[in-house]
Amino acid sequence: MTDTNTGGDVRLTGISKTYGSFTAVHPLDLTVPQGSFFALLGASGCGKTTTLRMIAGLEEPTTGTVFLGDKDVTDLPPYKRPVNTVFQSYALFPHLDIYENIAFGLRRRGVKSVKKQVGDMLDLVQLGDKAKHKPHQLSGGQQQRVAVARALINHPQVLLLDEPLGALDLKLRRQMQLELKRIQTEVGITFVHVTHDQEEAMTMADQVAVMNGGRVEQLGAPADLYENPRTTFVANFLGTSNLIEAEVVETGGTDLVVTAGGGKLSLPADRCSAAVRTGGKVLVGVRPEKISLAHADDAGKIAEGRNRVTGRIVDSSFIGVSTQYVVNSPAGAELQVYEQNIERDTRLAPGAEVVLHWNPAHTFGLDATQDIDAGVETVEDAS
Ligand SMILES: Nc1ncnc2c1ncn2[C@@H]1O[C@H](COP(=O)(O)OP(=O)(O)OP(=O)(O)O)[C@@H](O)[C@H]1O
Ligand SMILES: [Mg+2]
């Protein structure tokens, strides 16, 4: 399918939304490149849906402008925008079969011959054999694909998806993530996908905007956000980070030297926020999978030049591909370490004295004035 319109980027400039005295979205500048898969990621209530609804025209912005390409669409009603939305509750028409559900948008616009287009859509979402079924005869994932086909048949320039996989169980969700990504690549139109699931955002999107409290906290490609979080919120919300409180003792070189829990650590200056490079306190960050674990008896075998932290294992969980350890150390409580299961050292069990060691290049530095626990998922939030 190459007959889609080429409408240009979605551009939000100074877009905000207030409800009475409450600001749901603070003035926001955001460009979604044409043809990209873009994710708005954040916890419940951070303003994702509100932002999406302003793009769709379902919510009037308090300030700011929405552009599609060069066209200012801020004052256009939803049906006049080349935008379609798929919601979490994708409410198909229960009395119509799948074919007619998909044909609906064309029929409403008075298109006479729908056969070719509906056929193409059924192929695209791989439901050709279900055309005569009613929605209740389909699985959740299949119904979701019908909802996507129903929206895409209108040839929108932009497809907005608001937690479209929220109702599916985990395994089906994973399948549908790949399926949606395939569909987007095939049709080549811009997808803006809202989710609170960081893995989902990273799997699917070219670009992720991490939202927090009505603001975009950081925007980038998944790997870039993961490796170079600029705030504690992004470091904790996207995957897991060990954040260690430390004091800068040496600046000026390509590496910064800090002390934490009585030991020294070094980290690349260019992976530190500007505030940190001048000295003072710093939060030293390292991802759990970057750390290796050695039994204290083997400490002498650790290569020179690695960052080291001593500690004691307090918990370990075997999860097949890896074992996840929790280590208490003078540098920080409950440090997380993920070890791939290649040759398991059976001495690494709760109670064991260990040394955590890693390549200093895998360390980042964040401004210590932030809340160290921002963005940490609590048990109640977990879904
Ligand atoms: N019509 C409204 N009137 C008042 N407050 C609103 C209204 N709509 C949304 N809000 C508030 O704005 C904030 C952002 O809401 P929004 O629906 O954008 O969040 P979200 O990020 O989509 O969350 P979720 O993941 O739970 O769907 C919330 O605190 C919400 O309570
Ligand atoms: Mg929402």
Can you walk me through this structure?
There is one protein chain. By secondary structure, this protein is α+β, with helices and mostly antiparallel strands. The chain has two domains: 10-227, Rossmann fold, CATH 3.40.50; 237-382, OB fold (Dihydrolipoamide Acetyltransferase, E2P) (Beta Barrel). Helix content is 22%, strand content 34%. It is built from nine helices and 20 strands. The protein has helices at 48-56, 98-108, 115-124, 140-152, 170-187, 198-204, 222-227, 232-237, 274-277, and strands spanning 10-19, 22-32, 37-41, 63-68, 71-72, 83-86, 158-162, 190-195, 207-212, 215-220, 242-250, 255-260, 263-268, 280-286, 292-295, 307-318, 322-329, 332-340, 353-358, 364-367. The strands form four sheets. Strands 6-7-8-3-9-10 form a six-stranded mixed beta sheet, with helices on both faces. A five-stranded antiparallel beta sheet has the order 13-12-11-14-20. A hairpin with a 2-residue loop joins β1 (10-19) and β2 (22-32). α2 (98-108) packs parallel to α4. The structure holds adenosine-5'-triphosphate and magnesium ion. Adenosine-5'-triphosphate binds next to β2 and α1.
